[in-house]
């Protein structure tokens, strides 16, 4: 049974200004009969961390890739900052993407570039009027924000999995996005490093007042970061609430995520 609930009041004081992301009746089918999304509805408020849970293949990553235009849905609306991104031109969509950071599972660094070059390349692609000194300052600031200022001259091959995630996050932060989409930010990391990444997600929200969607299988990450949790099942939002509420939910399937 779909458990539609009133939206839970988020923890953050900055979430009372209406949704910064609104998804309405989102559908997506791949091929002839591989239907992934069957009418997803969700909102994210300013300054809120929303965690999306679901089994593998449930459409979690598809949902956030639709938000940045990496996947085009078959039906529905995706409003970001009040604008339906599906109606934007390519140029307008690119302008919108600058405000939306996306942390891929792998960190998605360019292996042939140093850490400095990875971050500089991203910055120059969007802010071409910056001087060399300004670029260097922004790169250092972004690296220090994730605690890796001393890794500036390293190559990706010299970094641990946790460090790659942090550098990927620094590259996202360098454009000072208002929204960050995290796709499995702690996957493949040990318990201590996973906790450090979760703490970093919280720190970024508190300091930069970002809104975030966090796709994760890591329940420790979900418990630490979530203001609100939504659970995807069979292509729709099946349940919604705080970690504590869903942990005690009457639905055995929902509770299974918390065991």
Provide structural commentary.
This protein has 259 residues and is of the alpha/beta class. The chain has 2 domains: 1-99 and 178-259, Rossmann fold, CATH 3.40.50; 111-176, no CATH class. Helix content is 34%, strand content 24%. It has helices at residues 60-67, 90-97, 115-126, 132-145, 161-173, 191-208, 219-225, 243-247, 252-255; strands at 19-30, 34-45, 49-53, 75-80, 83-84, 100-103, 179-183, 211-215, 228-233, 236-241. The protein has a 6-stranded mixed beta sheet, sandwiched between helices. A 4-stranded antiparallel beta sheet has the order 2-1-4-5, covered by helices on one side. Helix 6 (191-208) links the parallel strand 7 and strand 8 (211-215). The longest helix has 18 residues, at 191-208. One of its GO terms (molecular function) is ATP hydrolysis activity. It comes from Flavobacterium reichenbachii.
The CATH homologous superfamily name of the largest domain equals P-loop containing nucleotide triphosphate hydrolases
The strands making up the biggest β-sheet line up spatially as 6-7-8-3-9-10
Number of domains: 2
Estimated radius of gyration: 18 Å
The low-confidence runs, each spanning 5 or more residues with pLDDT under 50, are: 1-16
Distance between the termini: 20 Å
Instruction: Estimate the global geometry from the Cα principal axes.
Output: globular
Number of strands: 10
Q: Enter the CATH topology name of the largest domain.
A: Rossmann fold
- Major sheet size, sense and barrel closure: 6 strands, mixed
């Amino acid at each position: 049974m779909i458990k539609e609930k009133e939206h839970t009041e988020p923890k953050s004081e900055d979430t009372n200004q209406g949704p910064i992301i609104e998804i309405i009746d989102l559908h997506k089918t791949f091929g002839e009969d591989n239907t992934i999304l069957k009418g997803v509805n969700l909102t994210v408020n300013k300054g809120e961390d929303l965690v999306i849970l679901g089994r593998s293949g449930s459409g979690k990553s598809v949902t956030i890739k639709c938000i940045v235009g990496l996947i085009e849905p078959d039906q529905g609306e995706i409003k970001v900052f009040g604008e339906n991104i599906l109606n934007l031109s390519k140029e307008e969509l690119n302008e919108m993407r600058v405000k939306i950071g996306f942390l891929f599972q792998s960190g998605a660094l360019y292996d042939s570039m140093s850490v400095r070059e990875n971050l500089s390349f991203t910055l120059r692609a969007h802010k071409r009027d910056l001087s060399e000194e300004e670029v260097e300052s922004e790169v250092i600031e972004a690296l220090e924000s994730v605690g890796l200022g001393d890794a500036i001259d390293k190559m990706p091959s010299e970094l641990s999995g946790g460090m790659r995630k942090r550098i990927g996050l620094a590259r996202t932060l360098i454009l000072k996005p208002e929204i960050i989409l995290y796709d499995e930010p702690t996957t493949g990391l040990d318990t201590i490093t996973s906790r450090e990444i979760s703490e970093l997600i919280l720190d970024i929200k508190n300091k930069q007042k970002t809104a975030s969607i966090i796709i994760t299988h890591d329940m420790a990450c979900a418990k630490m970061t979530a203001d609100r949790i939504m659970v995807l099942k069979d292509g729709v939002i099946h349940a919604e609430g705080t970690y504590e509420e869903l942990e005690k939910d009457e639905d055995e399937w929902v509770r299974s995520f918390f065991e």
